[in-house]
Write a structure and sequence with these properties.
Layout lengths: L1 H18 L10 H7 L5 H19 L2 H7 L2 H18 L6 H29 L2 H32 L11 H11 L14 H21 L1 H12 L4 H28 L4 H18 L2 H31 L7 H27 L4 H20 L9
Length: 382
Amino acid sequence: MKQNMRGLTCAILSISLLTVMAGAAMAPALGAIKEHFADCSPMTVQLIVSLPALFIILTTFLFRPLCRLMRTRTMALSGLALYVAAGAGAFFVDSIGLLLVLRALLGISVGLIMPLSTGLLAFYFPPEEQGRLMGLSAAMNQMGGVVATLLAGVLAAVEWRYAFLVYLAGLVAAVLVAVLLPNERLASRNSRLKVSTLIRFHPSVTAMLFIMLLFFVYPTNFALTAHEQGVGTLATTLIMVGLDVVAFVVGLVFGWLMRHLPRQMKYVAPLFFLGGYAVLAFVPGMGGMVLGSALIGLANGAGVPYVNTIASIKGGRDAAVTVMPLISAALYLGQFLSPLVVGPLARAIGGTEAPYLVAMSLAVLFLIQVFLTRRHHALPPA
């Protein structure tokens, strides 16, 4: 039985490795893609990164009805098949229109598997294990982002099409899911998404939106800040990868943190986001950039699994078809809205540090939201 649970854990965590690759992994290849499609506007090319998020959001709202039609393994394998076909299929196209269609289909595939990557942990494992497992899920997500981004950059140096071959990693997850994941039905008669359900889970959904709004201020502005301070491209890349490594380590120890610091964990994300962006705004030089990046990595590495853990415990076994699709939608909505919200406000303020000042303001609002809506949450005793 223990061996079966380990295999089940591996299958679920393999999905977590893939979800972050939907958009951000292609960022290193955008320059080569823009050069190839020279007649297209920069905004059209940027849709290669941002378009999947929109379709992920739309698909997560269809997740519960689909769970009434398909069982877990069928749903996961369908999503992974589409993930590989749409992701790696871009290797064979030479039309920006068709490429964007495939990116939209990729978003649909992630919308199918993203709620499973966390919801299945709530479905199969007791509450006392969910802090550790949600931390591992977040850590795998970070690892997938680091590996996929670096690999896509290397492959894009050969030719832009090769970057899309990173999505073949979905084949490994598909094998694990086919062999190790039971084919059960998630949706129960009592798992309908009602207004009362939305009200019940709004603290977690809002918190995830804040986390993504705040975190994506960093990748959209940090490289520019580093360049203006005379930091080279290699050093900038290493600092940004270092942030993901910090978040990965936090995910690995998250279960321990929830056990020993349960009252403090709810404040970690807003306070460390506030501190990280304050350092980036007011402490110039390499030291400030490294420290600020590390603090933001800590905030993201603790914030995402905390929200997922609390939501999954409150949602129980039905979390996969009630709260987790909402959490997934909030996550990608935050990614999509972050530059649209922060950019105009930063331009109104003016100055290189303006995006970080806006982020500090958002972090204060996040802290207030946590204080007003979060009661004390601790994991049940093991």
